[in-house]
Each structure stands twice: as C-alpha cells, then as structure tokens.
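Hi there,

I know you've been waiting on this one. I reran it after we fixed the sequence typo, so this is the corrected version. Both the input and the resulting structure follow.
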Amino acid sequence: MGTEFLIKNFLTSLQLVLAKNIVGPEGYKLIGVVGFIIFLLFLFILSGKSKLKTTTKKSYNIPFNIPFIKRKKIKISLKKDRLYYPDFLELTIINKGSEDIDIDNPLLIFSNKWISRKFKLKGISNYNFYPLYLSKGDKHTLSIDLNRFYSHDKSLKKFPKTKIVIYDVKGSKLASEKVMLRKTLFNF
C-alpha cells in the first residue's frame, strides 16, 4: 500500500509540474495573427481577384477625367440566339476607354473540361477587317455562325463553353467573355 501511494503521489505531482511548463497562447499574439489574416484577406479583395460571378457586369467609371492618364478599356458582350445549342453568337465591342485602340483578331475558344480548340476570327464572308481601329465611344458588332465551326469539326458540338478573348495589336489582353452553349453538371 505504501508503494502504490508513493507512485500515485509521484505521478500526480509530475502532472502538476508538467502542466506548469505548458504555456497557452497569449492574447496579443492571437490578435496579431487574426489581424494579419484579415489584412491578407483585405488585400486579396482589393486586388480584384475575388470577383463574384454574376450574370450582369457593372461598369465602374472614374468620376473625374485626368488628361495625362490614358486608359485602354473595352466592354464586350457575347449574346446567343437560343438558350441551348445556339446557331449564332453576336459579339459587340464598345471602346469605353479614354484613347483610341487597334483591336487584333478576336480569338474564339471552344472548351471542354480538358480540351480547348482555338480559332481566330477574320471577318464575315471572306471580307477581312481585322485589325480594327476603334475610336473612343465607337461600337463594333460581329455575328458569328457556329455551324461553320461545327462543319469543320463535329466534336465541337459536345463542347459546353465558348469564350471570346480580345487582344490589342501589341499583344496585350483587353477583355474576355464566356457563354455556356449547353447544360452541364458543373460550370467550369
């Protein structure tokens, strides 16, 4: 009985000694870590990477016009003639910037989850009008017949998403817009 009592007392006192060496998190360190995480989240939101996916796009205009700042900004819209399996897409490009721009051939991308096919659009009915010069405030509309692409490659009908990417003549990307051509389980 004496040895059991000594062992129990020894283990109990050992736990108390070990418990005194364990230091919990201090309050100011926790506040600092939480503040740092909130700061990183705030920077992420300000950088514009966290845009929510919406069906309508809002245009944010600068309330004042500074003459020495030249902005290349275009707004594009891509409309389809039917909700699912459209035959035609209508591309509209509007120059919203403060300077004139030269637009290179639009890039039409049919994409599946793993595969994408890219086509450069040249014009309508053997009339090439790209690169296109758009003055500020001007508008350009292009009707795209998808059946022409489907006749080129039959597997394109299975691709659910189409995307248009607009580049400057110098190679910088100006804008892009995507359209879902058919129903999918996941919007990727």
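Quick highlight: DSSP finds three helices and eleven strands in the chain.

Best,
R. S.
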